[in-house]
Amino acid sequence: MGLGAIAFRAGLLPAPTQETKKGLKNPMARGNWDDFSDKYGFSEGARADDTDFQARKHLCGLLNKRPEFQAAKVRAIEFNRPGMHNPCLIVLLPALSDKNDAELLQMFHAGEIKAKAPLPDIEDAEMERMIAEAYALAVDKLASRISEDIRMALGEINRAIKMVRHKFDDRAPNTFAGKLDSRLDAARVKLLSALAA
After folding, report:
1. For residues 46 and 28, what is the distance between their CA atoms, to the nearest angstrom?
2. Closest Cα to residue 50, out of 138, 125, 129?
């Protein structure tokens, strides 16, 4: 579990709020249940970004673990709606014991599952809490990906510095090797401070 999720669970994350259609405050979440379940959500998809798609993935996992979903035999499944409108949807389908989520979604596309399942009865506050937790997990995932990219770039810079220092003995400030060496050092310092932030 990442720092964002830990801080959220501990109640330490001050976060912006967003109002749902019901007028409830949704701490930390950028989207709400209406955004994930309506083709007009996320301003018809215009506001949906990587964080929303990651949060949707985590939210489906959280919902599918709920006893209400298991008792109602309902699965929350990620649905990338094609065409216009909102591409970041969650579709609720009846859980069939011999089918996984991909098979259920394929059956839905083929028209073999005619009706979507109704949302099991979950308190609004609990739904908001799960959405906020899904966004905290999504932010952690995206931050770790960026951090890994920075670490990889830092490794490349360090290899380049070693190569320049190995190939050129003359690192006087006015030579090509000296200038390249100082620029690589400056880039490394910037990346290190970005990692520390």
Report:
1. 19
2. 138
- The model's pLDDT over 88-101, given as tens digits with 9 standing for 90+, comes to 999 999 998 889 99
- Find the helix or strand (DSSP H, E) in which 18 lies: strand 17-19
Kindly report, residue by residue over 155-166, the tens digit of the pLDDT.
777 777 777 666
CB 20 within 8 A of CB 33: yes
Euclidean distance between CA atoms 94 and 111, whole angstroms: 13
Rounded distance between C-alpha atoms, residue 33 and residue 62, angstroms: 13
| In contact, 77 and 93? CB cutoff 8 Å | yes
Q: How far is CA 128 from the centre of its chain?
A: 17
Please choose, from the candidates 52, 37, 57, the residue with its C-alpha nearest in 3D space to the C-alpha of residue 119.
Answer: 37
Are both 50 and 95 inside the same structural domain? yes
Tokens representing 45 are 């998809």
* Same domain assignment for residues 108 and 124: yes
Domain residues for the domain of 190 are 146-196
